[in-house]
Write a structure and sequence with these properties.
- The chain has 385 residues and is of the alpha/beta class.
- The strands form three sheets. A seven-stranded mixed beta sheet has the order 2-8-7-6-5-3-4, with helices on both faces. Strands 9-10-12 form a three-stranded antiparallel beta sheet, with no helix packed on it. A two-stranded parallel sheet has the order 1-11.
- It folds into two domains: 128 residues, Aspartate Aminotransferase, domain 1 (Alpha-Beta Complex); 240 residues, Aspartate Aminotransferase, domain 2 (3-Layer(aba) Sandwich).
- The protein starts with a strand and ends in a 6-residue tail after the last helix.
- The protein is built from 13 helices and twelve strands.
- The protein binds pyridoxal-5'-phosphate.
- The site of pyridoxal-5'-phosphate has 13 residues, from helix 3.
Amino acid sequence: MPQVYLDNQATTPLDPDVFSAMKPWFTEKFGNASSRNHTFGWEAEEAVEIARESVAATIGSLPKEIIFTSGATEANNIALQGVAKNYQKQGKHIITLNTEHKAVMDVCQHLSKDGFDITYLPVDKEGILDLNKFEDAMREDTILASVMHVNNEIGIIQPIEEIGEICKKKNIIFHVDAAQSVGKLPIKVDELGIDLLSVSAHKFYGPKGVGALYFRRKNPRVQLKPIMFGGGHERGIRSGTLPVPNIVGLGKACDINADVMIEENLRISQLRDALLQGIRAENPNGRINGSMEQRVAGNLNMSFPGANNEAIIAAVPEIAISSGSACTTSTMEPSHVLLALGMSKNEVYSSLRFGIGRFNTAEDINIAVESINSCMKKIGKMSYV
Ligand SMILES: *Cc1c(COP(=O)(O)O)cnc(C)c1O
């Protein structure tokens, strides 16, 4: 029996139209976008610049403010380390959240070994940042704040516009890890006050191994020191031959998104609500983790007190779900995001993440509801606490 894929926060399937757009760039159009002397190079460069315009249009920036990276992990590294290196004379204090992705948390940890002082702000039990706490954390020597737009485990949306306003007022550079929001929410970097923003293609039906970093050119002009060196590609910030097929795929994913996002969100949120209702009907004590109001359409994260998430996952091989982020699950540590909501370890170990996406159907949801409910009956006679 084929598996129903409900792990769209870990990665999304490649859209077939994205794949079609990419194909020629693997085969007959194989040129190096930096080759200046022949049409192979020129057509590759043109394709890269068209994709750059698509990414820029998706977030409301100028094309020249976009550089291509291998994904959001690299974009986060370039943003955080690049700002840290460039602005360290002005201060060495950075503010972030204790619910960030490892691709921000681990960079901060690395920077703290280099003498940077990191404040990890707590969130409330819904997962949302308290703006007063954010403003209170600002110091004379604060150079950067990094806050994710949408959380990869619980799908909650942070108040980015308000955070951006505070950063502007205090003259602090504002980085946003938008790996889970690009393609899911409308984004305009100027309206949201964002100075740096990380994008990942494989979270919105593009290929793995490509992403982008937006960095602001004006008001203020953000300056980054490169963290690796080579041919000086991408304004000297990200050296390395450009992966043209992947970049074309990222651009195509952005173009498709512009056409379908609103309608798709509506459809996905209906599927998500059907999933929730179906599970709740037989498991009234199942609890939702994180705010339901401030959440993207495709995410549901629930705990089932008294049950163990790994036992549930093993008992429902026909559906692909997860107990947390793809990165934390490999270490079997309890999710730092769920702990940050004030949940106990037992509650965390009873939690499941369902991620619904473009290619899920109502039939998928029926299968998932049936699987989870019959599993709960078996595991259960469950002593709900
Ligand atoms: C997936 C993800 C990343 C990492 O992106 P890659 O492109 O896989 O490196 C970073 N941050 C968040 C919030 C993510 O969901």
